[in-house]
Design a protein that fits this description.
This protein has 379 residues and is α/β, with parallel strands linked by helices. It has 13 helices and 8 strands. Strands 1-2-4-3-5-6-7-8 form an 8-stranded mixed beta sheet, with helices on both faces. Strand 3, helix 2 and strand 4 form a beta-alpha-beta unit. The relative contact order is 0.12.
């Protein structure tokens, strides 16, 4: 066998060199493009994530995209419409006029379930209304704690309720009642708040007390409330995503309720009520409520003065000592520092006060007639 060195022609060498050079250039191009591809992917991700943070636009009632208007409505000075529902005695012959403020996922239909006999005996007229963004009331892009009181005052004037009226507020609707006490106390004949939600960041509440009360909530609610306070722009995403546990009330995970509340849940028709409440926008109703309730307030209710120094009216808070949706602890703290509030703590009762048999009559009689049914808080 012949042996010898393998000879490579000059042409073959040139081809090989050219291929190697092109290969190196290709590798350099790929390596140079990698950061650009990564940056592009990151930009696309953040653009997608930004879009998920933005709530979809509302679907106003009475428009092609929205539900039809079936309720009477009044037009406010800024052009918004507010839907309302009347109940009780005819307004013209009533002795007492009561504006009812619904709670979370509630509506204008949530009038006080007082007995017909008592309502007729006392001569009580009720009007409930859909708060801004709820039910059939228009969205208020400038909605605030103060605007809640302004809406109530304007509704009362448009319905000719007179110079003074009563306010009964449920749950998170309590911030509307606090707003009335702050901004329109001269229009109030009396106020009753039923299991009102408290803000853990009110400056008048000691930090230690607020932290202890905050930790009484289910863990998922601690996160949801914190998002509403510290990152309100994230509230819509947090309560619609499926990666982390959202608000237990929004999620409908209420297995921690007390026995009375669980029994009353069927009466409350929660699913049907929520569908009506959020028909325009879940963000403009439920999420806005959370942002306003747990955000920074322009005032601290702990600093309010008695609006009825001459006992011409009264302010009441009713709360169940087994309310696990709104823990009672901060309520006790609040009324110790606001002794002019008549506090009624109900043993063995949870959050759904208006469905407890006989209780609406007690609430109404105490507010309108001053019947003393005070129950001292337990230690």
């Amino acid at each position: 066998m012949a042996t010898g060195k393998l000879r490579v022609s000059a042409a073959s060498a040139r081809v090989h060199t050219r291929k190697s050079t092109e290969s190196r250039k290709c590798c350099k191009c790929c390596h140079g493009a990698m950061p650009m591809f990564f940056l592009l992917a990151l930009t696309i991700y953040f653009a997608w994530f930004y879009e998920t943070l933005k709530p979809p636009p509302p679907k106003p009632c009475g428009t092609p995209l929205g539900m039809p208007v079936t309720s009477p409505r009044v037009k406010l000075h800024d052009g918004r419409y507010v839907a309302y529902k009347e109940g009780g005695m005819p307004k013209e012959s009533a002795t007492y006029k009561v504006v009812v403020v619904h709670g979370f996922a509630g509506s204008r239909k949530d009038l006080l379930n007082a007995s017909k006999n008592l309502v007729e005996e006392l001569g009580v007229y009720f009007v409930g209304f859909d708060r801004a963004g709820y039910g059939q009331s228009d969205v208020n892009p400038n909605r605030s704690i103060k605007s809640e009181a302004a809406d109530i005052q304007e509704l009362a004037d448009l319905l000719n309720l007179g110079p003074k009226f009563y306010v009964i507020a449920y749950s998170i609707g309590g911030y509307s009642a606090w707003a009335c006490l702050k901004y329109i106390p001269h229009r109030l004949a009396g106020v009753a708040m039923l299991a009102p939600v408290t803000n853990y960041w009110w400056s008048g509440i000691s930090r230690a007390e607020a932290i202890q009360a905050y930790r009484l909530q289910p863990l998922q609610d601690q996160f949801a409330v914190a998002v509403s306070h510290y990152a309100p722009w994230l509230t819509y995403w947090w309560n619609t995503q499926n990666w982390f546990p959202k608000s237990s009330v929004i999620q409908g995970k209420l297995d921690y309720l007390n026995a009375v509340d669980k029994e009353l849940m069927n009466m409350a028709a929660v699913t049907e009520r929520r569908m009506e409440a959020t028909q325009q926008s879940v963000y403009e109703s439920l999420h806005r409520d959370m942002i306003l309730m747990f955000g920074q307030w322009d005032f601290d209710p702990m600093g309010l003065q008695n609006p009825f120094p001459n006992r011409e009216g009264s302010v009441h808070i009713w709360h169940g000592d087994e309310d696990y949706i709104v823990p009672v602890r901060l309520q006790r703290y609040l009324v110790r520092h606001l002794p002019w509030i008549h506090y009624h703590e109900l043993p063995g009762i949870g959050h759904l006060l208006t469905f407890v048999e006989g209780l609406p009559d007690r609430i109404l009689k105490d507010l309108l007639l001053g019947v003393d049914l005070l129950v001292e808080p337990s230690n």
